[in-house]
Amino acid sequence: MKECKQCGTCCRKGGPALHLQDLELISLEGGIDLIDIVTLRKGELAYDQPEGAVVPLACEILKIKGTGGEWICKFLAPSTQACRIYKNRPLECKTLFCGDPEPLLKIYDKERITRKDVLPEGHPVFEIIEEHEANCDPEKMAVLAKYILENWDNSAEQQADLREMLMYDKSVRELLVEKSGLPLESMEFFFGRPMNRVLSGFGIMASPNENSFTLRKTKGSA
Ligand code: SF4
Ligand code: SF4
């Protein structure tokens, strides 16, 4: 195969990460809105294409959201398998061709953007983002989860810390939506994936209950 047939197979494996060249597409009519973006934060587990494995992220990236609880790009029209923003598709999509992975590999981890590149300097939510980063650090979560999994019956203190982190994450999103009127769908851009979803990657399921979270091991966890 010498050219892209627009079959959508690559789009079903996950949407692109965003690069500097994509900044102009954000908020462009017919382009990408903040509600279409998910922030993957440093320390979260994510699939790395060149490595072909799930690894902790070395730095923050912004990615087009998936759909239906999976990574299938939200812009892929299910009925036609066509890209709904084809004219304004991001750089990785323009570069990717399954018949020749080299061009994508060359740009893959270059000039990726973060929330700081998208939000204007002094944006009022930035202070809240920084507090959230300090209180809900995925690397700290990974350490806590590892300890808890290895010492489930003797980790009350660590489980309490984990629940506190989950509660903070949940309440900061709810509060910002309530106070600012920002859409709920934009919270994954501002604060990344909800921390109970991040936690499931580390082997622990957390289900919200009335006042906190119930923790249990995911299938296959130690
Ligand atoms: S790059 Fe390959 S997999 Fe992706 S849409 Fe084109 S032909 Fe399909
Ligand atoms: S933005 Fe369009 S081309 Fe890119 S992965 Fe999504 S559906 Fe495919």
List keywords for this structure.
single chain; 222 residues; alpha+beta; 2 domains; two-stranded antiparallel ribbon; two-stranded antiparallel sheet; 9 helices; 6 strands; 36% helix; 12% strand; binds iron/sulfur cluster
Concise summary:
The protein has 222 residues and is of the alpha+beta class.
The hetero compounds bound to this protein are: iron/sulfur cluster
Low-confidence parts: none
Strand neighbour order, sheet with most strands = 1-4
Strand content: 5-15%
- Arithmetic mean pLDDT: 93
The global form is: globular
Name the helicity range. 25-40%
SSE order, one letter for each helix or strand: HEEEEHHHHHHHHEE
The overall strand count is: 6
Largest sheet, in brief, is: 2 strands, antiparallel
Integer tally of domains? 2
- Kindly report how far apart the N and C termini lie: 44 Å
By secondary-structure content and strand pairing, the structural class works out as: alpha+beta
Number of helices: 9
Radius of gyration, taken over Cα atoms and rounded to an integer in Å = 19 Å
Give an account of the 3D structure.
This protein has helices at residues 9-12, 91-95, 102-107, 115-118, 125-135, 138-150, 156-180, 187-191, 195-201; strands at residues 37-40, 45-48, 53-56, 61-64, 204-208, 213-217. The protein is α+β, with helices and mostly antiparallel strands and 222 residues long. The termini are far apart. The protein folds into two domains: 9-117, no CATH class; 120-217, no CATH class. A hairpin with a 4-residue loop joins strand 5 (204-208) and strand 6 (213-217). Bound molecules: iron/sulfur cluster (SF4) (2 copies).
